[in-house]
Amino acid sequence: MIRTETFSQPTLPDNFYWLNEPARYVCGQGLEMWTKAETDFWQRSHYGFRRDDGHCLLTDITGDVCVTTQVEFQPQHQYDQCGLIVRIDAENWLKVSTEYDDPHISRLGSVATNLGYSDWATQDVSSEQAEMWYRINRRGQDFKVEASHDGNDWKQLRITHLHQASETPAVGMYACSPIGRNFHCRFLRFICEPNQWFTHTE
Is pTM beyond 0.90 here? Predict the structure, then answer.
């Protein structure tokens, strides 16, 4: 699967589908989402709760590919977030985003969930950042997660493994607001292209 979507038409592109449709969405100048109240993706670890009601616009992929998105966001409440997700099922998935904390600091990071347990790897970034690019390269059951401020200079966030990764997982854009509602974000593009993670030295 090789495709680039800019969501310039008023309807969703072919072969995309919702998991947990948001409170509102609009296509035409990107994909805009407004979240429902108290939505999240998390499984068990540390906090004990299980949540699988965040909003995802997904498409199915086959083989080793690279998926990229560019997104603008306007957080209002702590933990408002949006980014990329790779999903097998409720207990096995990977996401990358910037989670809003307060007017000064947010958390750029990723969550890998395996066999019903989530982890969370983060680094502090300025809450003035209102646009990010995210990229995930897949090689079998292994995934390289990266982020960029401009789509050119990429920083590796982690290399991780999904134990239950299938041949055709779903990938796409997600948003959620764990303690608030009406978090607004706009995805400007979604790119699926051949895997760019080639050598063991990267």
Answer: yes
